[in-house]
Amino acid sequence: MHLRATKKNRSEVSLYDPIGTDKEGNEIALIDVLGSDQDVAEIVENSYERQRVMQKVNVLTPREKKVLAMRFGLFQGLRRTQRDIARKMGISRSYVSRIEKKAIQKLLKELSAEGCK
């Protein structure tokens, strides 16, 4: 029974499983040879957090969404200053700042409420 139960897990590989040894006799794990500048776990976590934030952006008003998208480059990837956003939208820089602050507070509230569930 045990052999049947573990059969399906044989093909699974952990990034931290040893795959061999180096010239000095130290074990080498798969994570050591992947050649990534960033930690794989960090990349996955950042991707997950970005998805969570993008889902919560829908609770914002169109104006708040537009300000955050321009300010932090959410959709096009181009970040703009508050001054640029104010000129483009025809409002003051301080109003852009207030909209940005309110939108971020809404997102934080939504994300923290989700974390409690």
Structural descriptors:
117 residues; mainly alpha
Written description of the protein model:
The relative contact order is 0.09. The model has no long low-confidence stretch (mean pLDDT 83). This protein has 6 helices and 2 strands. Strand 1 (18-21) and strand 2 form a beta hairpin. The chain has a two-stranded antiparallel sheet with strand order 1-2. The protein has 117 residues and is mainly alpha-helical. Helices cover 60% and strands 6% of the residues.
Largest sheet: 2 strands, antiparallel
Q: Radius of gyration in whole Å, from Cα?
A: 23 Å
Overall number of strands: 2
Helix segment count? 6
User: Which stretches of 5+ consecutive residues score pLDDT under 50?
Assistant: none
H and E order: HEEHHHHH
Topology:
Layout: H1 2-7, E1 18-21, E2 27-29, H2 30-33, H3 40-56, H4 62-72, H5 82-89, H6 93-116
Antiparallel strand pairs: 1-2
Helix pairs in contact: 4-6, 5-6
